[in-house]
Amino acid sequence: MKILVDCFGGDNCPKAAVEGAVLAINEKKDLFVSLVGDKATIEGLLAQLSYNKDQLEIIDAKDVITNDDNPIMAIRRKKDSSMVVALNKLHEGDYDGLVSTGNTGALLTGATLIVRLVDGVQRASLVPIIPTVIEGKYTIVCDVGANVDCKPSMLKEFAIMGDVYMRSAFGVENPKIGLLSNGAEEEKGNALTKEAHELLKQSGLNFIGNIEATDMVSGIADVIVCDGFDGNIAIKAVEGMAKNFMTLIKAGVKKGGLKAKIGALLLKDTLRGVKKKMSTDEVGGAALLGIQKVVVKTHGSSTEIPFKVAILQAAKLANDDVCGIIAKGMK
């Protein structure tokens, strides 16, 4: 597998991207990584690391797309940016996938215009992996921001792509598909979800009906389908709660005095386990499903571990030919 890494654009880049790539190739000996970005800067970071030089190359790109750039204008005008150079290499060359932590809108726009959509797909879907309360079980959400306004037929496509993803990435034989709505009852929802509900009932997928946001991490569904507007709000609410959970615990312990501190000490390992379980650092990035080749978006604040995991994730998705299977499913 040959994976491109856009080394610039994130909060901790390029250091996190370069170190994550080295961790990935040190772990997987049949992996080749191409680091895209300012060559001198990347060489300086690599000089401090130990790795097999036969597994890595640098592709020079002097410019950077920032989060303040307009996505469409940036893709059109910043031709020498690390993201655009990486996307062109993915489209034109014998590369299998791309990992980027840059501007999400620009990555979506660039992947759609340069790498191109799978035939039959109306829009790509941004699909993150979220942990659940069930040990070893994960849920994916299709979509969390790529498409804020959707047609019912698009939600059906998201469900089909999510079904393929769960089968390939997690080995789930018959993924349970849930439709995010404001109630579990079939008659609940707006015009979009009601029409999508009917399409999903007739799709042949393992559709379990509507689910509420309270079940986002319950594990009741393997694939949660929604438009990007609702999905983005829901996923950020989950991330925010997970992020602030330990803050609330610490504040409670501090106010509770000696008794609370003793209790916290006894539960220290358990609380650390809960924090680790609900962290997304080791589950991978958000895949852009519906693109002709594998594209994975990592969180803007990703450090070296999330980068490593995302690179290995991209290699696995490419090896499993997820894009090819999605293409077949769209026919």
Average pLDDT, all residues? 92
| Major beta sheet, strand line-up | 3-2-1-4-12-11-5
N-C termini distance: 27 Å
Helical stretch count? 11
Cα shape: globular
Low confidence ranges = none
- What letter string, H or E per element, gives the SSE order? EHEHEHHEHEEEHEHEEHHEEHH
Largest sheet: 7 strands, mixed
Helix content: 40-55%
Question: How many beta strands in the DSSP annotation?
Answer: 12
What this model shows, in words?
The radius of gyration is 20 Å and the shape is globular. It starts with a strand and ends with a helix. A seven-stranded mixed beta sheet has the order 3-2-1-4-12-11-5, with helices on both faces. The chain is an alpha/beta fold and 331 residues long. The mean pLDDT is 92. Strand 2, helix 2 and strand 3 form a beta-alpha-beta unit.
Task: Summarize this entry quickly.
With 331 residues, the chain is α/β, with parallel strands linked by helices.
Provide the descriptors you would attach to this structure in a database record:
331 residues; alpha/beta; 7-stranded mixed beta sheet; 11 helices
Task: List the topology elements.
Blueprint: E1 2-6, H1 15-27, E2 32-37, H2 39-46, E3 56-60, H3 71-77, H4 82-92, E4 97-100, H5 104-115, E5 125-127, E6 129-131, E7 138-142, H6 152-170, E8 177-180, H7 191-201, E9 207-211, E10 223-225, H8 228-266, H9 268-278, E11 286-289, E12 294-297, H10 304-319, H11 322-329
Parallel strand pairs: 1-2, 1-4, 2-3, 4-12, 7-10, 8-9, 8-10
Antiparallel strand pairs: 5-11, 6-7, 11-12
Helix pairs in contact: 1-10, 3-5, 4-5, 6-7, 6-11, 8-9
